[in-house]
């Protein structure tokens, strides 16, 4: 990485937006090693977002707290105010997208069993104790998906009483109401209880538009009101209206119970529930005819003398309504056996029911034929893990994993696409698939001296899969695929060296992988005279990562860090054109990502803290048999540069935060098609600034005021991000 040249001075002025307090070296992480580890001794550059830091920010979803993490780019920087996306978890970590990053809740995967989607909506934010983000290759501990790193959402324990009632009111593009009730307690009989309920309502705001490009012939009907614009590629176009406000509601509930077997062991179990719904409001056409009447459909019109433009009422329609519900149940044991073996056993099952309707040919905004698409999936995770001291030098972590996933996709015809119950006939299209992964992992923490530690480990994963898919009518097919299997071995070696008390140096090398998901294996589609074929013979994507770095705790008020890394990714899955009517998923690509992250945290005074960070990500497609023209291009959704900074203060009963982040523009695909920016459908560079101030009225009552997008930037990440908006919040604790 010859392009990387840094000086000590540069390190001193860069920081993680959410690094831990400099003076508190006792903070620990559990994600990097699966055991408690002081951050200064960790074999990776861990970012910990504490509960206090969560409270400092205007967080509606867990993803809102990730905005400032070094090397992480959120697809929607204000995700908690957006309605788009069934997964609601579009991001990249060091150039690896959500499907190539392991996202966990208390160590259990959050990704669905359908298409490796991550839905941050499913986690009750009031129940989050902290979030640990550990970049780098971690398939050696966590298996599939952990190429870019691991995001572990750690929930609260019922080890102390807490009851909170929270009400939030949003204004502007955040208009709506939030209400939450959260309670936890631990009783003398050894029983612990956690109960949480929340509801979020958003009125929505206009963020999607109808944009039409003139043809080559003259139009017949003159109209006015179109707003000149361009397509993302720069072609002349007109914004002819918007798709209205997309209102949404979200309900969350969680119940957890624990029982202390003794002072070191407990049984636990619980259930988490989430349901999310959207509702598209009326559209707005900006066009008027010569009599001043609204024009919402016309096959040959001319806007202020333009060439022919064709418009249909259905051009204003989104996929609607969307409904997604998820239920996760779990039961487990955590404790110490024979005063030596720190053991965890857990079984968790997650079920996701996702459905939405789509308009069909000839449909209007409000009625007409269409389809209902159901995408239910399930995942079952079983973990058995223990850690123990083998000798004075060796601390062993070993475990077994079993993960079973299943999808059962169905498509039904509707007589009215706005009525999800107007089903006619049986399913016309479907895909079924199931995959089972069995794993064993081991890690040896070898303390060669008080200042030099080696972490050596690996994981073997073997998965089996089988499935089928079908379609009746036009483009019919009916396929059944035999069971097949594949495997991956993911070794990793890390070293941590403390040459002096205030400096930590790290280096690591590891392999990681991502198994193809059930949708890639079996989710064939037929559209527009083309078969978009799945491929039951796909191989896992595999990667090799090298990293060096460290941190310097210069004083009790200053901590700086640097990480340099390189990842080579092979057997990337792309859609490959077979012929004029067939496109098939294939292990067609290779890519390389290398970069640098600089971090620092400064306590300016006893009440004022400054965080800054800088990330440089150099990504390049090295090979793509599906589309050779993309070789040399950047990876999709990966910015080259990101800056972030946060100034937080706590003085008396007042506390506040101002945070800002800059991100380069990104490309939506590896084709890196030209993007003029600033128009609907583009992916803009942005500088986003948010602020929040809190005031403690009395011991049990706190009020806050937040302003997101403080400078009211107009930013598109395909759709329009919220403009400046205000949120007021009242929190009662007793």
UniProtKB/TrEMBL annotation:
Pfam short name (any one): TonB_dep_Rec_b-barrel
Record domain TonB-dependent receptor plug: where: 39-150
Localisation: Cell outer membrane
GO biological process, one term: siderophore transmembrane transport
PROSITE patterns: TONB_DEPENDENT_REC_3
Cellular-component GO terms for this entry: cell outer membrane
Principal place of residence: membrane
InterPro entries the record matches: Beta-barrel_TonB, Beta-barrel_TonB_sf, Plug_dom, Plug_dom_sf, TonB-dep_rcpt-like
Domain TonB-dependent receptor-like beta-barrel: 271-710
Record keyword Transport present: yes
GO molecular function: siderophore uptake transmembrane transporter activity
Signal peptide, first to last residue: 1-19
Keywords per UniProt: Cell outer membrane, Membrane, Receptor, Signal, TonB box, Transmembrane, Transmembrane beta strand, Transport
Gene3D superfamilies, alphabetized: TonB-dependent receptor, beta-barrel domain (2.40.170.20), TonB-dependent receptor, plug domain (2.170.130.10)
Membrane topology: Multi-pass membrane protein
Record family assignment: Belongs to the TonB-dependent receptor family.
Name listed for the protein in its UniProt record: TonB-dependent receptor
Native organism: Sulfuricurvum kujiense (strain ATCC BAA-921 / DSM 16994 / JCM 11577 / YK-1)
């Amino acid at each position: 990485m010859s392009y990387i040249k840094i000086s000590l001075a540069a390190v001193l002025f860069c920081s993680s937006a959410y690094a831990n307090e400099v003076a508190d070296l006792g903070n620990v992480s559990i994600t990097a090693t699966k055991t408690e580890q002081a951050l200064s001794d960790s074999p990776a550059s861990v970012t910990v977002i504490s509960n206090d830091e969560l409270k400092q920010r205007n967080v509606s979803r867990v993803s809102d707290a990730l905005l400032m993490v070094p090397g992480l780019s959120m697809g929607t920087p204000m995700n908690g105010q957006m309605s788009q996306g069934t997964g609601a978890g579009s991001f990249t970590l060091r150039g690896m997208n959500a499907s190539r990053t392991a996202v966990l809740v208390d160590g259990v995967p959050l990704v669905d069993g359908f298409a490796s989607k991550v839905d941050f909506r499913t986690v009750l934010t009031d129940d989050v104790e902290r979030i640990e983000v550990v970049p780098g290759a971690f398939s050696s501990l966590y298996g599939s998906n952990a190429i870019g790193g691991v995001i572990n959402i750690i929930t609260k324990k019922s080890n102390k009483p807490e009851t909170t009632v929270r009400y939030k009111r949003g204004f502007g593009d955040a208009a709506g109401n939030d209400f939450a009730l959260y309670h936890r307690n631990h009783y003398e009989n050894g029983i612990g209880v956690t109960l949480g309920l929340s509801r979020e309502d958003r009125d929505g705001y206009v963020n999607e538009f109808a944009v039409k490009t003139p043809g080559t012939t003259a139009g017949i009907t003159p109209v006015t009101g179109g707003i000149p614009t361009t397509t993302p590629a720069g072609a002349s176009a007109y914004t002819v209206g918007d798709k209205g406000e997309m209102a949404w509601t979200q309900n969350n509930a969680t119940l957890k119970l624990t029982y202390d077997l003794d002072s070191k062991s407990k049984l636990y179990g619980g259930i988490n529930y989430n349901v999310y719904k959207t509702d598209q409001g009326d559209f707005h056409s900006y066009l008027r005819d010569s009599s001043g009447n609204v024009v919402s459909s016309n096959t040959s019109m001319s806007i202020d003398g333009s060439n022919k433009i064709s418009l249909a009422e259905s051009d204003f329609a989104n996929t609607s309504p969307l409904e997604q519900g998820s239920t996760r149940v779990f039961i487990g044991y955590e404790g110490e056996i024979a005063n030596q073996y720190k053991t965890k056993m857990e079984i968790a099952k997650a079920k996701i029911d996702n459905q939405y309707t789509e308009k069909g040919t000839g449909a209007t905004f409000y009625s007409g034929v269409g389809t209902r698409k159901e995408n239910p999936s399930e995942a079952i995770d079983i973990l058995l893990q223990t850690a123990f001291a083998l000798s004075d030098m060796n601390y062993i972590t070993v475990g077994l994993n079993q993960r079973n996933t299943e999808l059962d996709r169905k498509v039904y015809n509707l007589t009215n696409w706005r009525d999800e119950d107007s089903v006619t006939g049986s399913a016309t299209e479907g895909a079924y698939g199931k995959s089972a992964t069995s794993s064993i992992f081991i890690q040896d923490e070898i303390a060669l001296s008080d200042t030099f530690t080696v972490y050596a480990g690996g994981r073997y994963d073997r998965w089996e899969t089988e499935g089928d898919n079908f379609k009746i009518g036009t483009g019919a097919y009916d396929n059944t695929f035999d069971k097949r299997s594949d495997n991956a071995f993911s070794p990793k070696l890390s070293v941590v060296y403390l040459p002096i008390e205030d400096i930590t140096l790290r280096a690591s090398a590891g392999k990681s992988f991502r198994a193809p998901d059930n949708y890639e294996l079996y989710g064939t589609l037929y559209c527009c005279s083309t078969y978009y074929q799945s491929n039951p013979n796909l191989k896992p994507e595999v990667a090799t990562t090298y990293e060096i770095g460290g941190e310097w705790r210069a004083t009790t008020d200053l901590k700086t860090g640097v990480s340099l890394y390189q990842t080579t990714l092979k057997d990337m899955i792309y859609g490959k054109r077979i012929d004029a009517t067939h496109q098939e998923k294939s292990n067609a690509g290779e890519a390389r990502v290398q970069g640098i992250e600089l971090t620092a945290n400064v306590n300016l005074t006893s009440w004022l803290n400054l965080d800054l960070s800088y990330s440089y990500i150099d990504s390049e497609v090295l090979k793509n048999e599906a589309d050779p023209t993309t070789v040399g291009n950047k990876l999709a959704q990966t910015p080259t540069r990101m800056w972030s900074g946060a100034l937080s203060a706590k003085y008396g009963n007042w506390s506040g935060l101002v945070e800002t982040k800059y991100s380069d523009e990104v490309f939506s695909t590896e084709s890196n098609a030209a993007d003029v920016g600033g128009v609907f459908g583009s992916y803009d560079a942005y500088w986003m600034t948010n602020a929040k101030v809190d005031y403690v009225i009395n011991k049990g009552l706190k009020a806050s005021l937040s302003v997101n997008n403080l400078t009211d930037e107009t930013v598109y990440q395909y759709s329009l991000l919220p403009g400046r908006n205000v949120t007021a919040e009242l929190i009662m604790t007793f």
